[in-house]
Design a protein that fits this description.
With 196 residues, the chain is α+β, with helices and mostly antiparallel strands. It has one domain. 39% of the residues lie in helices and 10% in strands. The chain has a 3-stranded antiparallel beta sheet. A hairpin with a 2-residue loop joins β3 and β4. The protein is globular.
Length: 196
């Protein structure tokens, strides 16, 4: 489950920390990022381990995004590869057995059953530098205030077909907000979200 790029011993330390947190009564959420070295089988293995063995309370997943500062630019998933991996990993109703912390429509999006535009302002990121524009995956500078971020960022210039850096992005930070908005705007999808 650990990639070739991981540091020795980090996985074991993370597992021990999760077990300790669960034993102390904390809710534990994980965020697993998948790369082009992953297969449907490795996705299933990771999610089964987190869900069934570690009993993590909620699991988040995302295809890796080729952000500019990433030291390794060779292992990011493209859109079609992402859809194929998740379509196969979620087959036979498997996605319903995991405690995934995602809307049904975002999971449909990962499988290629739904198409959305990015909502880059949906998960704003703040650090010592300020509010990152347009999302935490891109380095287009920082705004000093939240108002400045919202009012002075040209949100319409980001997303697939608008900015080449966005062409292979399917990350949850931009597409889960869109899926949630689509769910809230549809009685059918809202009922689906409640009933699972």
């Amino acid at each position: 489950m650990a990639s070739d790029l991981s540091k020795e011993g980090v996985f074991d330390k993370a597992v021990a920390a999760i077990k300790q947190a669960k034993a102390a009564g904390f809710a534990v959420y994980t965020n697993s990022t998948f790369f082009n070295t992953d297969t449907p089988e490795s996705v299933i293995e990771v999610l089964d381990f987190l869900n069934d063995e570690l009993k993590v309370d909620r699991l988040e997943i995302s295809p890796a995004y080729a952000y500019e500062k990433a030291p390794d630019q060779d292992h990011f998933l493209g859109v079609e590869q992402t859809r194929e991996v998740f379509r196969k990993a979620f087959a036979d109703g498997r996605r319903k057995r995991w405690r995934l912390n995602h809307s049904e429509l975002f999971l449909d999006f990962l499988e290629g059953k739904a198409e959305f535009e990015c909502t880059p302002w949906g998960v704003p990121s703040y650090s010592l530098f300020g509010w990152q524009r347009p999302c935490y995956l891109m380095g287009d500078g920082y705004a000093k205030t939240y108002r400045e971020l919202l009012e002075e960022t040209d949100w319409d210039k980001y997303g697939r077909g608008k900015d080449p850096r966005c062409d292979n992005c399917m990350a949850h930070c931009g597409y889960e907000p869109t899926a949630v908005l689509a769910t809230m705007g549809s009685l059918k999808q809202s009922l689906r979200a409640v009933t699972g």
